[in-house]
Amino acid sequence: MVKTADIVIVGGGISGVSIGYFLLKYGAKNVVIIERDFLASGATGRCGAGIRQQWGSPLNCIMSKFSCEFFETAVDELGFDGDIEFHQGGYMMLVTTEKELAQTKKNVALQNSLGIGTKLITPSEAKALAGPLNTEGLLAATFHDRDGHLNPFTTTRAFADAFVRLGGKVYTNTSITGIRTSNGKITGVDTNRGSIATNTVVNAAGGYVQNIADMVGIELPLYSKRHNILVTEPVERVLGPMLMSFSLNFYCQQTPHGSFLMGRTCPDQPRDLRITADSRFPVAMAKTIVKVLPQLKNLRMLRQWAGLYNMSPDNHPIYDQVPGLEGFYLSAGYSGHGFMMSPATGQSMAELILGLPATLPWGQLGFSRFTEGNTIHEPSVV
Amino acid sequence: MAIDEKSHILFTKPLHQTPMIYYHSTNTDINLKGDYMRISAHPILDFERGTQVSFTFDGVQVSAYTGETIAAALYAAGYRTLANSPVRHRPRGFFCAIGNCSSCMMVVNGNANVKTCIELVQDGMIVETQRGKGTL
Hints:
The structure holds two protein chains of two kinds. Chain A contains eleven helices and 19 strands. Chain A is an alpha/beta fold.
């Protein structure tokens, strides 16, 4: 293991590998990623992996547009020899209440003004795009054809391979056991495989960011919450776009493999890092999805699992240096959309850490927004 | 592997990038058909056989007894290939026989992905070999 590093990234999920890749791309040297388990073993490998640009805040629209455009050419940009399985079949958001319709119209206008070609469509147009859809009770839908979904494992691998090719080092099965500081500055990290002297640590530990911050006695304004997801047996493709609805409380996609991956927000979820199965979830999920896609009623569920949403007070991530400890950066609090925003995360954090001019509005995503009352309102999160 | 050699290796090359090998699926019967493949007398167990029924498998008439599973009846009739693997199309035979392994999934009366090792035969059933992953 290396003895010194310019930058140590904690966490080998999609955010950590993306930050690592962009840091090296913009000229950083001696960057190391420390991962406790294996790459994508946390929230990344557990997520729904949907990619959408249909947001209600300008900031999220800009960040997600950058990210989606990155994914479109990611295989070439990253020089990946595999397939990130970007199924760009569009993303359809179903609208079933008048209140939701009013908000949706505002969102579409905003997205269009930012160059995102979302369309407000009628239930029959929705049916034409998503054959198995039951349009009963549907008022309208929005559709953006450049959205879709990815394979989170191979996407993580694509970033990690590019990171290693550019000279980065990845240590998996390696735990951070302590962070060394001196006079309010980072001086190194201790791991179960040795210590690394460094002045810069990026905390990208996803659901476990507070565990890392605890090592330097810092309380973050974030918490991790369990979210459930399930997968069915595979069948030939019948569903092109990814579907989602706030009012119906679900998202669902058919993977290139043919299986359906779906989730919904459940009540009373633990916030103590538990990722055990919730037996109530598949029942509620099945009831929901069979109303929307009646054909799925005879499809077998294969398994369920859970992962952690790292929630921030305004449902937006924090990209910043932690106040009070020089060299300690935080990239967390994605509130359930860290995977789809990961290219923007990497670009933003690299610009922040390397002191480059900002090409993305990450300046709004610092800690100061909470103390100065500049939190960002996003009406469109699950 | 580009990643640290001591690390756990998570990802392998996707299956579809490995050379495609086609195996011939052979339902050339073993000439052991019908009741010959059923145990008729056993020193300890008694077999109470149901009434005789028949169904079609890929258009061929197959006889069976009520209380048998589709896969058991097909096995007794000499069929050894029950399905094909989805990517490399290798023949799949009777494997777990308890509804777990998905090795015997067929299209039954138009419904895909029926686990024939736990589905009981009924008179007049239409059973077909499944091509691909099945359609909803």
